[in-house]
Amino acid sequence: MGPLAPNELISENTNFLLAFLIGTGFGWVLESSGFSSSRKLAGVFYGYDMVVLKVFFTGAVTCMLGLLFMSLFGWIDLELVYVNPTYLTSAIIGGVVMGAGFIMGGFCPGTSFCAASIGKIDAMVFIGGLFLGVYGFAFTYGWWEKLYMAAYLGEPKVSKSLGLSDGLFGLFLILIALAMFWAAEWAEQKFQREEY
Amino acid sequence: MKPRQLLALIIVPLGLIIAAVPQNKTNPYKLTAEELLNEANTKTQFISPDDVADMIISKNPSLRLIDVRSQEDFEKFSLPGAINIPAQELLSGEYTDILNQDVKMNVFYSNSSVNAGEAWMVTRQLGYSNNYVLEGGLNYWFDVIMNPQRPASTSSDEELAKYDFRVSAGHALGGGGSIIQSTPGQSSSTAKPAIKTVPRKKKAAGGC
User: Fold this and answer.
1) Long-range contact set of residues A60-69: C-beta below 8 Å, sequence gap at least 24
2) Residue B62 DSSP symbol
3) With an 8 Å Cβ cutoff, is A163 touching chain B?
4) Hey, are the CB atoms on A65 and B7 less than 8 Å from each other?
5) What is the pLDDT of residues B48-86, one digit of tens each?
6) Which of A156, B66, B98, B102 has the highest Cβ tally under 10 A?
7) pLDDT per residue over A91-117, tens digit each?
8) Contacts of B8 in chain A (CB under 8 A)
9) What's the angle, vertex CA A32, arms to CA A30 and CA A34, rounded to 5?
10) pLDDT tens digits, residue range B83-125?
11) Average per-residue pLDDT in chain A?
């Protein structure tokens, strides 16, 4: 059965329509949970508001459980699901750059568009910077290419490299997530801010 | 109850279940028996020896010949550039990258087209595309490419052109023995069979 697009069960145009609907829903949830405030994202780094971490970890765990169960029932062929190829060096450098951008700007790409759509000027400036970065990288790609392509690992799975079954690793990840939620709520108490 | 505890109550049991059940490793068949039969009956899986000979000579990079006979037979004789995947090792997993891809055009061959046809059926059943069968196998290959029979002089231009191509292809591939006798006023380019290029399937991409 699934995945729908690679198995050509739905056309590319339907695929785009679904992406549009899911994207709209995603934006709506981001906005209604207050992610369009830059203080929300910055809060993760200072420890006073861990909602972003909790939401995204819950999203990841839900998605993982959904995929594992759908695979178990034969509804989806996980072999056909696209996995971003891993280039370790650029993943680490990119992670650091993104993280620094999150603290300084108070937005991630998704939340910045959310905030810009409700008229926040700081978010529009953030988007301007985002495009500057994208074009800057594209036009100087030749300088970075070697670094960008370094340490190619293919499409590794943590479960496979640890020699665990996907399900067992999933259980560990759930336990890790719950431990993180507990730590996050402890941090929120400890670094509490009255008004932000 | 805190939301965290409620969430834990839901996801921990689900995690326990998914950790306990065996992983679904069954590779579901992509085609029903009926679909496969219909597809086999269209005969589109067959590639004629002429097409294959032309691709070998023109060094077409998309062609990949796969010999499904035993290693012993493969070492005795094989087509130029062929690789050997004995039929009984098709499912060993070692060759998945070769059989399941969308860049090259795999052409199976065996002595006749029986074993190669079986290989095509198995790969097709697994949902792999871009796999084909050399029509008639090596026996037919020898008949038409290595030792082509001269058609009657009353044959159509097309038949004669095909014969010319086969003789020259046989020579280029180190076989034959016949002398090229072009009929005057007939260009050899008409003998060139059209090469089917396999359209590249787009890979689905995603990202944040």
Assistant:
1) A60/A177, A61/A173, A61/A174, A61/A177, A61/B11, A62/B11, A64/A170, A64/A173, A65/A170, A65/A174, A65/B11, A65/B14, A65/B15, A65/B18, A68/A166, A68/A167, A68/A170, A68/B18, A69/B14, A69/B18
2) T
3) no
4) no
5) 888 888 888 888 888 999 999 988 888 888 888 889 988
6) B66
7) 999 999 999 988 888 898 889 999 999
8) 178
9) 70
10) 998 888 888 778 888 888 878 889 999 988 888 888 898 888 8
11) 88
Per-domain residue ranges for chain B?
33-141, 147-190
B64: helix, coil or strand?
strand
Structure tokens at B36: 């496969």
- CA dist A96 and A105 (Å) reads 14
Report residue B94 as tokens: 């070692």
Is the full-model pTM beyond 0.80? Answer: no
Q: Which residues of B touch A168 (CB under 8 A)?
A: 19
The SS3 call for residue B67 is strand
Phi, psi of B30 (to 5 degrees): -80, -20
pLDDT, tens digit, 9 for 90 and up, residues A185-195: 888 888 887 76
Please tell me the predicted confidence (pLDDT) of residue B183: 43
Fold topology of B33-141: Oxidized Rhodanese; domain 1 (3.40.250)
Task: Tell me, yes or no, if A84 comes closer than 8 A to chain B by beta carbon.
Answer: yes
